[in-house]
């Protein structure tokens, strides 16, 4: 399936998904919501210092990316 997942902060995740074409639609409390035309999911990214590996993998899967693609962003 690919390489190992590099953990990152919520802010870094927002930047990476932004490079993949996702747009910040709104922020609710400590969560940034990102949308992308043509995708059914809204990514909800908590603004923590470090996102857990399970959550990060779920977000990457919902975004239609592989772990390697995410790491390269």
What order do the SSEs take from the amino end to the carboxyl end, as H and E?
A: HEEEHH
Report Rg.
Answer: 11 Å
What percent of residues adopt helix (DSSP H or I)? Answer: 25-40%
- Strand fraction: 15-25%
Number of strands: 3
Distance between the termini: 17 Å
Give the overall pLDDT as a whole number.
93
Backbone shape: globular
| Derived structural class | alpha+beta
Strand order of the largest sheet: 1-2-3
Sequence stretches where pLDDT stays below 50 over 5 or more residues: none
Q: Count the DSSP helices.
A: 3
Sheet with the most strands, sense and barrel status: 3 strands, antiparallel
Question: Can you describe this structure?
Answer:
It is a single chain. The protein is an alpha+beta fold and 73 residues long. Helix content is 36%, strand content 21%. The chain is built from three helices and three strands; from the N terminus they run αβββαα. It has helices spanning 10-19, 53-62, 67-72, and strands at residues 23-28, 31-35, 43-46. A three-stranded antiparallel sheet has the order 1-2-3, covered by helices on one side. Strand 1 (23-28) and strand 2 form a beta hairpin.
């Amino acid at each position: 399936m690919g390489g190992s997942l590099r953990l990152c902060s919520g802010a870094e995740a927002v930047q990476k998904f932004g490079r993949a074409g996702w747009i910040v639609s709104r922020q609710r409390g400590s969560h940034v919501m990102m949308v992308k035309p043509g995708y059914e999911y809204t990514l909800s990214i908590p603004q923590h210092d470090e996102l857990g590996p399970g959550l990060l993998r779920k977000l990457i899967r919902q975004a239609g990316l592989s772990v390697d693609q995410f790491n390269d962003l």
